[in-house]
């Protein structure tokens, strides 16, 4: 068996306040096989320079990809997957930079991949929850978005819009990632749907999804409505793989 190598991909755009704290939290997990790959979209707040400082502070444990423009979440992750696989990652994770995803849950998610193909940090299984300070309308919109997407696509997972996931590296190698076209938040839905159509199995681990501590959220009502409309385009794009 190859030696385990876990790469956590963190896409960033204006995350100067969050990134050092997140990298520190990931390093404190005490998982020697874990490294961090930051994908920065030329953040005007200096996040890219901070990421470079972190590579010097944690040599061999933190790397950074600098992209010249804000090219979207989907493109950031796809680029990160390619680099992680090229560098021999056997487990590839993804998470937000803003502490919405609890870093300590990674240690609970890693063993899941001994029996499943994808581990999902889930807000919608028993034990999972959303930020307690969110208003009811925001919680309802998030829950409906998940129900809507998973019902239309027939997905077995309950949290299909969340971005806290670990993949077995062989799963990503086996997925036709070149077909992925989504570049916003529906990217998470498309990746889950494609993995499902390829026959890969999910296991959800409950998480508490906290609102960001610092910085400004990039989610809006317009983005969520647009994502809902895009679900139908995702379904149509993979009719050749679907058994419907």
Description of the molecule:
The protein is of the alpha/beta class and 244 residues long. The chain has one domain: Alpha-Beta Complex (Spore Coat Polysaccharide Biosynthesis Protein SpsA, Chain A), CATH 3.90.550. The chain is built from 8 helices and 9 strands. The strands form 2 sheets. A 7-stranded mixed beta sheet has the order 3-2-1-4-7-5-8, sandwiched between helices. Strands 6-9 form a two-stranded parallel sheet. Helix 2 (47-57) links the parallel strand 2 (34-40) and strand 3. The protein is globular and about 50 Å long. The N and C termini lie far apart (37 Å).
Helix content: 25-40%
Mean pLDDT across residues = 91
Distance between the termini: 37 Å
SSE string, helices as H and strands as E:
EHEHEHEHEEHEHHEEH
Structural class: alpha/beta
Instruction: Report the major sheet.
Output: 7 strands, mixed
Q: Segments where pLDDT lies below 50 for 5+ residues?
A: none
Quick one: overall form?
globular
- Output the CATH homologous superfamily: Spore Coat Polysaccharide Biosynthesis Protein SpsA, Chain A
In total, the number of strands is 9
